[in-house]
Structures are given as C-alpha cells and as structure tokens.
Amino acid sequence: MQASTTTDHAADIDKHVRVYISVFVALMALTIVTVAVSRFHPPVPIAVAVALLVATIKGSLVACYFMHLLSEKKLIYAVLALTAAFFIVLLALPVLTVHDGFWIR
Amino acid sequence: MEIPYTVEVRPDTGLTNGKIGIWLFLASEVMLFGALFASYILIRTGAPSWPRGDTILNVPLATFNTIVLISSSVTMVMAWASLKRNRFGTFRMYMATTVLLGGVFLVVKYFEYSHKFELGLFPSTNNFLAIYFTLTGLHMLHVIGGMAVNAYFWGPGAKLWKTNPEWFTNRVEHSGLFWHFVDLVWIFLFPTLYLL
After folding, report:
1. CA dihedral of residues B40, B41, B45, B51 (deg, nearest 10)
2. Within an 8 Å CB–CB cutoff, is residue A69 touching chain B?
3. Distance of alpha carbon B96 from alpha carbon B100, whole angstroms
4. How many folded domains does chain A comprise?
5. B76-135 per-position pLDDT tens digit
6. Whether residue A45 sits in one domain with residue A32
7. A104 and A54 fall within a common domain
8. Mind telling me how many Å the CA of A101 is from chain B's nearest CA?
9. Where in the sequence is the domain holding A104, given as residue range(s)?
10. What domains sit in chain B, N to C, each tagged with a CATH number?
C-alpha cells in the first residue's frame, strides 16, 4: 500500500478488512492443524514435511495479506528475491555437510 | 532539514524511503534468523539423538502464544486500516491491543523460562536447550523492540497525526511490517522447536 492510497475509498478499506478477518480465521485453523497432526506422532520425515508445509502456508498468508506483498513494487520483489536466494544457500550449506562426498567437509 | 520522500514516492524506486528502508532491514533480519535456523539444522542432523520438543517444552502454552501473536498481527493491520479510514480513536484502540498482546506473549514466555530454570534446564544443559533459548530469546528481543515502537506510535509519536496524517500512516505501516515479520518468525519457530 502506498501513501497515495490514503485517499482510498472507505469501501476499498472495508474490503481489505474482510480479507484480514478471513486470513485470521485461516491462520487459526492452520495452527490447530499443525498441533493436531503432531499429536499423532507421525514419523519424523512426515512430521517435518507437514509442519514446514503448514508453516509455509501460514507465513505466505501473513506476507501476502498483512504485509501487502501481493501489491508491492518491483523493487521490493527484487530485494526479497535476492534475500531468498541467499537464505536458501544458507540453509543448504548444513544439509550438504551431512553427506559424505559432497564438496564440503 | 526535512526528511525527503516520507509521503510522496521517489520517482526512481516508486517507493517512499521509509518503505524501502524497512524492507532492506527485514531482509537483513531474514539472514540473521536464517543463520540460526541453519545452525539448528546442522546441530540436529549431527546429533546421535534429538529429543522431541513436546517432551521438554510446554506445547499448550506455546500454542496459546501462537494464537496471541497471530491475533496481534490482525490488530496491527486493523490499526493501520483505521488510519486509512481516518478513525484515529479506533487506531489507538487497536494499537493498544497490539501492544497488550505483545505483553501477554512476554508474560507467557516468562513463565515458560522460569519453569525451565526451576527444573535446572539451562542453555548450557544440552544442544536442544541451547538452540531453544537462543532462538526464542532473540525472538523475544524483537517482540520487545516492536512493542516499544508500537507504544511510541500509540503515545507521543501519535502527535504527527495532527500535522501530517499521511506520514504518520506510513510510519505505522512500517512498524506493522516489522511486527508481522516477528509473527512470521514465530510461525516457523513454533513447529520447529515445540512439535518436531
């Protein structure tokens, strides 16, 4: 949302507010799903996959709607794309170290 | 000297300076938490055994805190939306609720930490607790920082609304972006530490 949208019609803002409420309900539901799945004590790989999938969905909802990433400028996307690339490398480094024969060790 | 591009957007970026500034800051925050998450993966995969979080940590309390933090994100965005609707009174109510919910989160965390210390569980006890206290401690510092900024905009900082409402609205949006980021980090911390 840019400063120029301060003059947005009240109806537009009302629409945004309805979306925020829907996202809130979705986030609550997904929190319950995360806890409920963990209660069944699934095998670790499945538990990790489900937990990360649900967390990614929840995180995306927060970023897209509460942080208004759906309607941001290209420069913000460029900054985040660069950050995401470095973030993936950062997370990949320890994963690569656990296998013999890789280029790290 | 007047700060440039607080309300009108810069022609080259298409953004206000505050907006690009907060996103660059958040990018650095992603790398900060990313480094700790990478450390967590490295320590966990290298350990001969690793405890399930729910055998040591209090899942119901953490679930409650997740609900609290998500709710505070909603009240934060509603505070911003209230300013967009020119409803300053409603803004203050939502902003106060956001700060209050941040306080509830910290109180719950205090009880969680206290209980661990009573049981003799410290960061030095084992690697799981070391990474748990480091990640949640750093996150707590962010909650405290966010609360301080939000409390400022609720209180003395709100004077700007009278002289330059658009600038004030933008500032609240930027503090909101930080607050949502803090929520987003917790969304990943919760399952990683407590449920896996």
Report:
1. 50
2. no
3. 6
4. 2
5. 999 999 999 999 999 999 999 999 999 999 999 999 999 999 999 999 999 999 999 999
6. yes
7. no
8. 16
9. 73-105
10. 17-195 (1.20.120.80)
